[in-house]
Specification:
The complex is a heterodimer.
Chain A: E1 10-15, H1 18-26, E2 35-38, E3 46-49, H2 64-70, E4 75-77, H3 81-96, E5 102-106, E6 109-113, H4 124-139, E7 143-148, H5 151-160, E8 166-168, H6 171-179, H7 191-199, H8 205-210, H9 213-220, H10 222-231, E9 248-258, H11 261-282, E10 286-295, E11 300-306, H12 314-326, E12 335-345, E13 353-354
Chain B: E1 2-6, H1 7-20, E2 32-38, E3 41-47, E4 51-58, E5 60-63, E6 65-70, H2 71-80, E7 86-90, E8 97-102, E9 105-112, E10 127-131, H3 133-141, E11 158-164, E12 171-177, E13 181-188, E14 199-202, H4 203-214, E15 221-225, E16 229-234, E17 237-242, E18 261-266, H5 267-278, E19 287-293, E20 296-303, E21 307-314, E22 322-327, H6 328-335, E23 342-347, E24 354-358, E25 361-368, E26 371-372
Antiparallel strand pairs in B: 1-5, 1-7, 2-3, 2-6, 3-4, 4-17, 6-9, 7-8, 8-9, 10-15, 11-12, 11-14, 12-13, 13-25, 15-16, 16-17, 18-23, 19-20, 19-22, 20-21, 23-24, 24-25
Helix pairs in contact in B: 1-2, 3-4, 5-6
Classes of the chains: A alpha+beta, B alpha+beta.
Chain lengths: 364, 373
């Protein structure tokens, strides 16, 4: 394995059960108890589960109804994004003490490039330890950090010893470490891709390392090439400060192609919920809603319509998605994949913008 | 027609009349004021077809009659006459001119026949009540700043008035919003008003009736209303207006009931500080940031080209740090309606409706949406 000579030092810092920990911090009666932040209604989704709830199998993005079944006595708390944003702001202030190369992924996680940290060279592990201590002191919350020489490994490392973990993956350890990973742990590999890799006999990082690049590209396109490279520890994606998101979308490849329009409509419901959740987390506002439809002949069509330039609600997203699904016509072939996304971000005035009063009757 | 009238009386009426007359109109008669002299009275009427004002003044009627002349020209002439002048108006039978004479000045104004002038609607208005001028003024003053000027949402271009409850605890409410802020104010429900339909009084009508009650003293204003029209009898003057034909949004929905972060501040000190700091935020969106923390509030503004400003005030605020941005102009508009020494600001978070109250006035409530800053 060829680790680059001038190796980078990348941190991935990820807050532990962020929303749930904030709720437990702010309300002592919630401490030590299984807790889910999210809606408890029939359509609600768990945003974050506390560590007490996780042994029961409660996970984020899980329907709340399912979570309540898995974990009797699970407490539901409505999210307070304001408190989360405030904590996130404090955390980013801590990051900024060490480097200006900070790429936030969401409120509770970020990549930092500490190859040349503020105030002169020092070991990345030491910086990670200090960041964790400062976050704890200033917010009362724990974070897990991963330290490595690229983004892919730093991110995996931060997840290894959660909560309150600090894991280093050094260049010479990388190959053996990657070899041991199941493919589902690789960035961008969801259930559908995992099944396709499995069909090629690829289950682990070792299998990927042994695979032919050409074969992966043939089966998975550009993503195949990306997988082949990161399996070799080659990930030169830079830490991009001020990265501005251009779109935000969710998509799902169905286990069985959908033939019935009712089933297609039903599939859009949870996607709208998930998309609304992510839009709110990222504070992302766009002017265009896009529905992506991939049919069983692998033809991809996208349909778009304008939406109000404000934080979209799940009802608005679902209404728009249902409209796009049936206009100008319903898909004629079985549907393999549906994707729902918001594009065309509102920029410029978003920095400072007057929020509207929302009257239900006239849509604000 | 021939009359003599005091300049002061004529000027009072014409100053109201000339507000009603649109400066640009495609229908010539609408530029004119109708003058009708009889029984020691001069009735002056102007209309823009939505709003009609009839003012009455005592006059020495030598020869009764009726005619119309350009309202703005007539007003300008009367305005420029000296203070104590007695003015004579005369139109000879069959003449197309009216003469206006005071001292040694004589003006000849072209007339249009009075029978071309649109007749005032005589439609019966079913609900009638009396309201104290001070109460009507309050309904207007504390809400009109929030009236929308956006024409697409025409139903926000006025003050929504409706009866809430009945009997001695009932109130007459005025509500206005431009979609960013909202004002709701109450006065005791006048007897007879409990049956009034919910209405939206257009901005221009609001402005005119407010000016009329300025000169009305304590005499109650006679109100008659249907779902399409409202009529105000204010001393010698009568204003009839069409109402906005639309449904005002269910405004109660945007008034939060349980905002838990509450700050109390000295009103004047706060308003002055916001005004000072906002000097920096010169852009169109005059954003200021309010950072609340235990016992204090820090007001700040940043501008790309005008610099930065920070001012700290003592505040009664026990509820944990919160940063929230607002349009400074909206804050100042609201603060100018706070009559007591203190203002109470009730917040949920930086993106939710904020309630502003005057602890000295439980009948007024303001809602303000924050800005993202």
């Amino acid at each position: 394995m060829d680790a680059p000579a001038a190796s980078r030092k990348i941190l991935h810092v990820d807050m532990d059960a962020f929303y749930a920990s904030i709720e437990q911090r702010d309300d002592p009666s919630l401490r030590g108890r299984p807790l889910a932040v999210g809606g408890s209604s029939r359509r609600g989704v768990v945003l974050t589960a506390s560590y007490e709830a996780r042994p029961f199998g409660v996970r984020s993005a899980m329907p709340s109804v399912r979570a309540a079944e898995l974990c009797p006595g699970l407490l539901f708390v409505k999210p307070r994004f304001d408190a989360y944003k405030e904590a996130s702001r404090v955390i980013r202030e801590v990051f900024a003490l060490f480097t200006d190369k900070i790429e936030p992924l969401s409120l509770d996680e970020a990549y930092l490039d500490v190859t040349s940290p503020t105030g002169g060279p020092r070991p990345a592990v030491e910086i990670a330890r200090e960041i964790k201590a400062l976050i704890l002191a200033r917010t009362g919350l724990t974070a897990s950090a991963g330290v490595s020489f690229n983004k892919f490994l730093a991110k995996i490392a931060s997840d290894l010893e959660k909560p309150d973990g600090l894991t280093v993956i050094r260049p010479r350890q990388a190959q053996a470490f990657i070899a041991s990973l199941p493919v589902a742990r690789f960035h961008g590999v969801g259930p559908a891709t995992a099944r396709r890799l499995e069909a090629l006999g690829i289950r682990t990082g070792a299998d990927l390392q042994a695979a032919e690049e050409g074969e992966l590209v043939k089966r998975l396109g550009r993503f195949g090439a990306f997988l082949w490279r990161i399996a070799r520890g080659q990930d030169d994606r830079p830490v991009e400060a001020n990265r501005r998101r251009k779109s935000l979308s969710v998509e799902e490849t169905f286990g069985v192609d959908l033939r019935d329009p009712t089933a297609m409509r039903a599939a859009l419901g949870p996607m709208a919920v998930e998309l609304a959740r992510r839009l709110e987390r990222q504070d992302f506002i766009g002017r265009t809603l896009t529905l992506k439809i991939k049919t069983d002949d692998f033809v991809i069509r996208t349909r778009s319509r304008a939406i109000l330039p404000r934080l979209a609600t799940e009802q608005e997203l679902l209404a728009g998605a249902l409209h796009l699904l049936s206009h100008p016509d319903a898909p004629e072939r079985p549907v393999r994949l549906l994707g729902l996304g918001v594009h065309n971000p509102v920029v410029g005035q978003t920095e400072t913008r007057q929020l509207p009063l929302i009257f239900d009757a006239d849509r604000g | 027609m021939k009359i003599t009238i005091e300049r002061a009386a004529l000027l009072r009426s014409l100053s109201h009349i000339q507000n009603v007359v649109e400066r640009r109109t495609t229908i010539p008669i609408l530029s004119n004021v109708k003058l009708e002299a009889r029984d020691e009275n001069l009735a002056l009427t102007a209309t823009d077809l939505d709003l009609t004002l009839m003012a009455n003044e005592k006059a020495d009627v030598i020869d009764p009659g009726v005619t119309t002349v350009s309202a703005h020209t007539f007003f300008d002439i009367v305005r420029k006459f000296p203070g104590e002048a007695a003015i004579t108006l005369e139109q000879a039978a069959g003449s197309t001119e009216m003469t206006v004479e005071a001292g040694r000045s004589v003006f000849h104004l072209p007339c249009l026949a009075a029978d071309e002038f649109p007749a005032m609607s005589l439609e019966e208005l079913d609900v009638r009540f009396e309201i104290l001028p001070a109460d009507l003024a309050r309904l207007i003053d504390k809400t009109r700043f929030a009236i929308s000027t956006e024409e697409t949402r025409y139903y926000l271009n006025g003050i929504h008035m409706h009866a809430a409850g009945s009997g001695p605890t009932g109130t007459l409410r005025g509500v206005a919003t431009d979609g960013h802020r909202l004002s709701r104010v109450e006065v005791p429900l006048p007897p007879g008003a409990e049956n009034m339909p919910p209405i939206i009084v257009p901005r221009k009508t609001v402005g005119e009736i407010r000016k009329l009650i300025e000169t009305a003293g304590d005499v109650p204003v006679q109100v008659a209303v249907s779902s399409a029209r409202i009529q105000f009898g204010c001393g010698p003057d009568m204003l009839v207006s069409r109402l906005i034909d639309g449904t005002f949004p269910d405004y109660e929905r945007v008034i939060p009931m349980s905002n838990e972060r509450v700050a109390s501040l000295p009103a004047k000190v706060f308003a002055e500080a916001v005004d000072r700091v906002a000097t920096i935020s010169t852009e169109k969106a005059r954003a200021v940031k309010l950072a609340f923390d235990t016992g204090k509030i820090t007001i700040s503004a940043v501008s790309a080209d005008a610099g930065r400003a920070v001012e700290e005030l003592d505040a009664e605020y026990p509820d944990g740090a919160l940063e929230i941005g607002f349009n400074a102009r909206y804050i100042l508009d609201m603060m100018s309606q706070i009559d007591g020494g203190e203002v109470r600001i009730e917040m949920a978070n930086a993106a939710a409706p904020t309630v502003v109250r005057d602890p000295a006035d439980s009948g007024a409530l303001y809602v303000l949406m924050p800005m993202r800053v």
